[in-house]
Amino acid sequence: MLERIFFGGKREQKVIEDIRKHLQILHASSECLKTALMERDKERLYCIADLEREADSVRREIISMIYEGAFLPYLRSNLVRFVEIVEEALDLTKEAASDFELMEWSLDEDIRDECLLIADKNAKMSEMLLIAFDALFGKDDLREKTLAIRIYEKQVDEIKGDLLKKLMDKEVRTFWHGKMLSDFADYLTRISNVIEDASDYLVIINVSLR
Amino acid sequence: MNVVEIMTKKLETIDADAPVYDAIEKMIDRRIRSLLVMPKDERDVHGVITVRDIVNKVIAKDLDLKKTKVGDITSKPLVCVDKGMDVEYAINLMSKFNITRVFVCDGKEIIGIIALLDVLSAALIKRAKEGHRA
Question: Which chain A residue lies closest to B119 (C-alpha atoms)?
Answer without folding.
Answer: A151
